[in-house]
Write a structure and sequence with these properties.
GO molecular function: hydrolase activity, acting on ester bonds
Radius of gyration: 17 Å
Pfam families: Lipase_GDSL
Protein name: SGNH hydrolase-type esterase domain-containing protein
Strand content: under 5%
Family: Belongs to the 'GDSL' lipolytic enzyme family.
Structural class: mainly alpha
InterPro entries: GDSL (IPR001087), GDSL_lipolytic_enzyme (IPR050592), SGNH_hydro_sf (IPR036514)
Shape: elongated
């Protein structure tokens, strides 16, 4: 599963379309992959929808900022550019993104709970 959300204050439309198409093809192909791996159970969790909902409805999730990350300027820095020497925002949980591309801990907490609920739902089936 893949997702690419925001860069430089704007959604990257083609990459988002590519992610949706890839995820659709992956979900369709998973039963064949699972059948080829004896004894395995593969579960698909759609995180693209929840991430887009967070961007479109930030207040629903307690976010005040969805267009830039908490690290540095929030527009350019990513991965190793966010380090001990990089300034961060004072209220991390207000931001949907930690850096210019990676979700924040608050976003991952929501996604973890979302995926956990899906897994528990599948376990009941």
């Amino acid at each position: 599963m893949t997702t690419k959300m925001q860069t430089a204050r704007a959604c990257v439309e083609q990459e988002n379309k590519d992610s949706v198409l890839y995820n659709h093809k992956l979900k369709k192909h998973l039963p064949q992959i699972e059948a080829s791996l004896t004894g395995s159970k593969i579960l698909y969790a759609n995180i693209y929808g929840p991430l887009m909902d967070m961007i479109q409805n930030p207040r629903k999730y307690g976010f005040k900022e969805t267009k830039k990350g908490c690290c540095g300027t929030g527009l350019l820095e990513a991965a190793f550019l966010c380090n001990d020497f990089t300034k961060t925002c004072p209220h991390h949980s207000d931001h949907m993104f930690w850096d210019s591309i990676h979700p924040s801990e608050a976003s991952y907490n929501y996604l973890g709970n979302f995926i956990d609920a899906q897994i528990r739902g599948w376990a009941k089936v």
